[in-house]
Amino acid sequence: MPQFNMGQNFQNEASNVNGSAHEPYTKGVTQPAQCRDSLFAALFVGHLTVIFWMCRTYIPLVLASSPMSTDGTDDAAFTKAFDYDTAQGILLLVVVPAVIGFVASLAGLALIIACAKTLIHLSLVFSIAVSLLVVLASVASGQLLGSIFALLMLALTVCYYFSVRDRIPFAAANLNTATSAVKDNLLGLLLSTVFYDVLGFVYTVFWALGFYGVMISWGCMEEEGVCDTSGTRGGIVFLILLGVFWSTQVFMNCGQVTTAGTVGSWWFSPEESGCFGSGVRGAMCRALTTSFGSICFGSLLVAIIQALKAMVQNERAQSDGPDILLCLVQCLLRCLEDILEYFNKWAFVYVGLYGYGYVEAGKNVIGLFRARGWTTVITEDLGSRAIAFLTMILSLVVGCTGLVLKEAFPEYYEGVPGWGAYLTCFLISFVVIYVMFGVVDGALNTVIVCYAEAPNEFQQNHPLLSEEMREAW
């Protein structure tokens, strides 16, 4: 694991670039290679054992309730139907949009490097334009209250644009640096992201089948059956929901920690970068071993709130009328979820960079915001806006592939309207581009932290990018 820093107490060097002095804070230090928050890693493994038992016990009930006959006639019909033409149809409908979406994401990376500042400006202008359209739609429909609220949002959006205009060059430099780090480690980051996504997908499929089997055993899937989920069963449902939310968070945050560790290696030890260099391999190894307990810890906190929110939402859906108390509880849980997810986003950067435990990483996050304040928030927000804007634009463009495929291969789109072909390609490409740019978003957060802590190392290892950052600051 590369040594990312030399000292303990560190005056924020980045603040001196523009001559201002911020409150000093403790600079991150690479921690000894040992497992941290091991209890939560053990709990996660235990939860996987329980889910495996649930699937092994209850998935046979799902298969037994399937309308497929046991004499093999339906299997033969399925095999006959799934011939070469069907495979070719799947290739055209799914694989082609996914590949084009991946190529578009690579073009997007080049676009960010070439004109990050313009993209940030366009994303802000786009927000203003959308707000203006909402105002016009509210006025045209005659909704007085809606028009007032829309006007207020438009005013706030315009004020935000003018208040952050001077921050755009620095945010663009950060975004350009993050994209350069991703480009230099593209293959490794891509493979690690796909690996975590596949794990999450496989887990979710088996979890859903197992949970469906549990519902069958309780009589919930019968046409006139009464599904009682009160008492002990309600607790079981909560724990099952907690499992899927926890696993989803763990796989997603493993990707964030891997990205943070990779960008950290690129920042401090650029010789470790490469298609699948030691920087990516080491970061991925730490995410799945020594830092796995910390990832499980932070992910569990968010998962508990998400599971509670799902239970409250289900209670609201089953209630006879509006319930103000449940509405307030759901709103409170949503706010807590947003706050904790934002906190985790930064805490996992420190976990990936230095190998801190979750609590120690949280202390560093608080120190970062005390030292840099709103500069960190604004820089991250502007960069994320540009990434989201570019994701949407590229997906809208790639969606046109559906129209081309429909005209070129009408036999595979028989009965499918033009908007259906477009929407299919749009959604598939959006998922691919979103996953790809999610890596850039994680890299951006890591760059913000690294520049706050080690601008001198950045100047030494990446002088051109460092000069751009200093001039923008």
Instruction: List SSEs in N-to-C order.
Output: EEHHHHHHHHHHHHHHHH
Gyration radius, to the nearest Å?
25 Å
Question: How are the strands ordered across the major sheet?
Answer: 1-2
Largest sheet: 2 strands, antiparallel
Globally, the shape reads globular
The average pLDDT value, as a whole number, equals 83
- Give the end-to-end Cα distance, rounded to a whole number of Å: 31 Å
User: Considering DSSP H and I runs of 4 or more, what fraction of the residues is helical?
Assistant: over 70%
Total number of helices: 16
Quaternary structure of the protein: single chain
- Which structural class is indicated by helix and strand composition? mainly alpha
Low-pLDDT regions: 1-22, 68-83
Strand element count? 2
Portion in strands: under 5%
Characterize the structure shown.
With 473 residues, the protein is mainly alpha-helical. It has helices spanning 38-64, 73-81, 84-140, 144-164, 168-184, 186-217, 232-268, 278-288, 292-318, 324-354, 358-372, 374-398, 400-408, 418-453, 455-461, 463-472, and strands at 9-10, 25-26. It has a two-stranded antiparallel sheet. Helix 1 (38-64) packs across helix 6 (186-217), helix 7 (232-268) runs parallel beside helix 10 (324-354) and helix 15 packs across helix 16 (463-472). Mean pLDDT is 83; it is low at 1-22 and 68-83.
